[in-house]
Design a protein that fits this description.
By secondary structure, the protein is an all-alpha fold. Helices cover 67% and strands 0% of the residues. The chain is elongated and about 65 Å long. The chain starts with 18 loop residues before the first helix and ends in an 11-residue tail after the last helix.
Length: 210
């Protein structure tokens, strides 16, 4: 999904050609100061324009939050789709979903931080859209775990709790990961994929054909 993806009704935004600049500065402010600490006056100052002229480029602060959060959840769902389509094996699907989740939370860290903490400040109908999309995302992780349990390769007492554990673990990288750290993003993603399989007590199926 692109940055101009829209959720409910695919509504057409007011933003003009400066949206990329607006988005970048808004992401920094929202991730550092939160929604209420981010003002249009402060955003305009960061962009080097007068506050009234900012409204020539974006309709409101709420529109900025909406576009960032809708794009964020659409990005996660697109990554999940790709992971699920990459294999029919539940272990490979869970590994791929986890790696995708980690990479998105690393490569779009400011968006992830904003999405994780600003849902209550998102107006309707976008809040309901994001909530529903998050539920759908979690449900597909849970379904994959359930499929692995049924196949006898996963062993968990609660598929729901296991799905929450995997998602929360993968989301945590947006808090601590730094580009200057000892590990590259792909290395971290691969390790988290392995940890997700440990959470569900993965045991490869025994090949009885031999």
């Amino acid at each position: 999904m692109d940055f101009d993806s829209q959720g409910p009704g695919k509504k057409k935004p007011k933003t003009t050609g400066r949206w990329d600049d607006v988005r970048e500065e808004a992401l920094t402010l929202l991730s550092e100061r939160g929604y209420h600490g981010t003002t249009m006056k402060l955003l305009a100052a960061r962009l080097g324009v007068q506050a009234p002229s900012l409204y020539n480029h974006v309709g409101s602060k709420q529109e900025i939050l909406s576009r960032i959060m809708v794009t964020g959840i659409d990005r996660l769902l697109a990554g999940q789709d790709k992971a699920l389509n990459s294999s029919s094996d539940p272990a490979e699907q869970l590994r791929a979903m986890t790696e995708s989740h980690v990479l998105i939370h690393i490569r779009h860290r400011r968006s992830a931080v904003t999405g994780d903490r600003e849902l209550a400040n998102l107006a309707e109908p976008d809040q309901s859209y994001v909530r529903s999309a998050r539920d759908r995302y979690e449900h597909r992780v849970r379904q994959t775990i359930a499929k692995g349990v049924k196949a006898g390769v996963f062993s968990v007492s609660s598929e729901k709790l296991a799905s929450f554990a995997v998602i929360e673990m993968a989301s945590s990288v947006s808090v601590w990961f730094r580009e200057s750290g000892p590990l590259e993003d792909l290395e971290v993603a691969r390790e988290y994929g392995k940890m997700a399989l440990r959470i569900v007590a993965y045991r490869p199926a025994i090949d009885t054909a031999r």
